[in-house]
Structures are given as C-alpha cells and as structure tokens.
Design a protein that fits this description.
With 378 residues, the protein is α+β, with helices and mostly antiparallel strands. 37% of the residues lie in helices and 25% in strands. It has helices at residues 31-64, 82-91, 96-111, 177-195, 205-224, 275-281, 287-292, 329-332, 337-346, 350-363; strands spanning 3-8, 11-19, 22-28, 131-138, 148-157, 161-172, 235-236, 238-244, 247-253, 257-261, 266-268, 312-317, 323-327, 370-377. The strands form 3 sheets. Strands 5, 6, 7, 8, 9 and 12 form a 6-stranded antiparallel sheet that branches. Helix 4 packs across helix 5 and helix 9 (337-346) packs antiparallel against helix 10 (350-363). The radius of gyration is 48 Å and the shape is elongated.
Length: 378
C-alpha cells in the first residue's frame, strides 16, 4: 500500500492506498478531519484484509479436505476381481478345521477294507493241516466292479495227507465281462477238483494244474462264442498253487503273481506273460521302468484268448515260517516288493498281513481291483 500526506497552503491532503487499485483521499483544513479520515481509512482497510483472509482460509480448507478412502471398485480390466477378494476373506475365517476333517474322512475311506477270508470254500479245514490261509479281494478306488476272484479249496487224501488248492483270477473285458471271465475260470478249477480228484502221486500234480487251466480256457472261449455275443473279447489271468506238506506247485497264466516270502527276503516266483516282462528279460528296460511303462498292461497270454494256452509251471519248497503270496496286479503294481516284505515281517498272522497289503495298495491309489491270498506255513 502507498500512503501520502502533503501540506498545500492551509489545506491538508491525505491519500491512502488501501489495496492495489483502491484508495481514499482527503483534502481540507483542520487536524480533526485528518484524524477521522485516517481512522476511517484504516478501519476499511482492516475489514478488507479480514474478508480477504477469510476467503483465503475457506479456499485453503476446501483444497486440503481429503475425501474418505473406500476400496477401489474392481473394473473389468483389473487383475483383482471380486471372487479373489472373497476367497482371501474366506481364508481368514476359521474354516481350516472343517477342511482337515474332510481330508481325514477321505483318508479313512481310502484305507478301509473288509476282513480276510480264513476258511476254504470247501468248509472245515482238514485236521492236522500245517498252514494258515487268508484271502481278501477289494474293488479298489477307481473301478465300479470287482473283476478279481479268488478260490480256496482244502481236502485230505490217504498217502498224501492234507492239501490245498488256492487261486487268484483277474478278469478282463470291461463292465461285467471281466467279472464273468474270472468267475468262470475259478468255477472250472472247482469242477476239475470235484470231477477229477487229485492223484496222490506228486508226479501228476503239474498235469492236474495244467488240465485245470486248460479246462478254464475252453469254458471262457465257449462263452465268447455264444450267439448273443454279450461276453465277446473277455478273458482272465490265473495264478494257482497246489500246496502239500513242505511243497508248492504253481501254475501261471497272465500277469497275476506268486511271491515267496521268508525271513531272508522276497522272491517273485512267476514270470508275467506281458510285453514289459519280455522287455525286462532281454534287457531293454529295467524292472523299475517296467512298473511305470505305458504298456505294462499289455498281456500276450490269458485264459480265453486262444485255444492253445501257455501254462507256466513252477515248483517251490516251503519251510516253517515261509509264506506264499498269490495276488493280482492291483496289488503288485501299487506296492513294491520291498513294501510287501516289510508288511509281512511286521504282521505275524496271515490275515493281518493280507489285510495290510490290500490297505497299502488302496492308500497308494487303488487304481485297480486288489486281491491278496496268503498261505503261511506253520
């Protein structure tokens, strides 16, 4: 502001600059008018300053006001969407115990199996028989039908004593056809036992086993040739053991197996009639590679495949404490030989070992039907 006070003759000239472009002036005699004018000018100037200050404060307050912060509304192109935010919120809720409980129930369902059979289909066990038996078959976790079947027959004969015929069959063909094929196979063996009793001469044991497998093959082939054609292209594997005191005779068709378990270790007695087994035999793949080979289920010899059946025969000496395990590939493909041996060593009864083996196969995935049959020498 610019102020001027000039004396011109007897008059006093006062010029007040209140604001750029705004001013007051006074010209006249006497001192009182001058004081009055100065006071009025100062008052008006103060009012103008106060008003300007208030306007400035209001403007600054409006400029500094911060609006409430709300979560950004997701747009279609945003990476974060409402479902994601919802999921994050759900993670903060105490829902984990519920999830864990569901997993626990699932695990319990996976490892639950039935109780093994410990008596033969023929009824009471012969007196003085020198071994325990236990067999268990389970549908597994991925199949709707159980196409596996098992058979346990025991009898006694003069000059031979107690003996038993034990078999596992794994049906193939899908739907009900595999189930029919495996049951037909075991029915044929039971008929062979009834209609053609075993000779007491050990030299005839192999012939009897081969005749039983051949009869099963003929019956399954005949069923496939029926006019209705409902059971075409069905078949079955077969592993069968004839047990007498201190000895086992074994017949095999397909990839069901017989294992010999002792305190020293485990030995696979039978050789699979499969593509991967041949590749192992000629050294193209290892035994470990065969377990996961994509063609491990290709079998070249089965019950019901062709008239000229190939039956592999084996002989085994059994000592007290030894175990003979017959099983389908639903067990051998899911549980390693080392795991089978460990289970056998940790369970003294045949029934307990049999049950835990099936549980182990289901816990490992249960991809196929599972059957385990154990003969334990006393």
């Amino acid at each position: 502001m610019k102020h001027q006070l000039n004396q011109i003759d007897d008059n006093l000239v006062l010029t007040l600059g209140l604001w750029p472009g705004l001013g007051l002036s006074y010209q006249g005699p006497g001192v009182l008018p001058i004081a009055f004018s100065v006071t009025a000018g100062v008052t008006i100037g103060l009012i103008v300053i106060i008003v300007a200050a208030l306007i400035l404060l209001l403007w600054l307050r409006k400029k500094k006001r911060v609006p409430p912060v709300f979560p950004a509304v997701p747009q279609p192109d945003d990476d974060i969407t409402v479902p994601v935010v919802s999921q994050d919120l759900e993670d903060t809720k105490p829902s984990l115990p519920v999830v864990e409980e569901a997993k626990t129930d699932e695990t319990a369902r996976v490892i639950t199996v039935g109780e093994p059979e410990t008596t033969p289909i023929s009824g009471l066990r012969p007196e003085g028989i020198g071994w325990q038996i236990a067999g268990l078959t389970d549908v597994g976790l991925k199949r709707e039908l159980n196409e596996d079947s098992m058979l346990m027959i025991e009898a006694e004969m003069p000059n031979l004593g107690p003996y038993g015929i034990y078999a596992v069959a794994d049906g193939m063909g899908g739907h009900e056809k595999g189930e029919v094929a495996s049951q037909l196979t075991l029915n044929a063996i039971q008929a062979q036992f009834t209609q053609h009793p075993l000779n007491a001469s050990p030299e005839s044991f192999d012939d009897w086993l081969k005749a039983a497998a051949t009869a099963a093959n003929e019956i399954v082939l005949a069923r496939q040739g029926q006019p209705n054609g409902q059971e075409r292209k069905m078949g079955s594997t077969l592993v069968m053991a004839l047990i007498t005191t201190g000895e086992a005779r074994i017949a095999n068709v397909g990839d069901s197996r017989a294992y010999h378990l002792t305190g020293a270790g485990i030995e696979q007695i039978t050789e699979d009639h499969s593509l991967v087994e041949r590749l192992v035999q000629i050294g193209q793949i290892t035994r470990e590679e065969a377990r996961v080979h994509r063609q491990r289920n290709v079998i070249y010899n089965t019950i019901g495949d062709k008239p000229n059946l190939e039956v592999s025969l084996y002989q085994l000496t059994l000592q007290p404490g030894d175990r003979l395990l017959l099983c389908s590939d639903g067990l051998s493909n899911m549980v390693t030989d080392e795991e089978l041996l460990d289970i056998s060593r940790n369970h003294s009864s045949a029934a307990a070992a049999c049950k835990v083996m099936v549980e182990a196969a289901k816990s490992a995935g249960g991809n196929d039907n599972i059957t385990a049959l154990i003969v334990q020498i006393a």
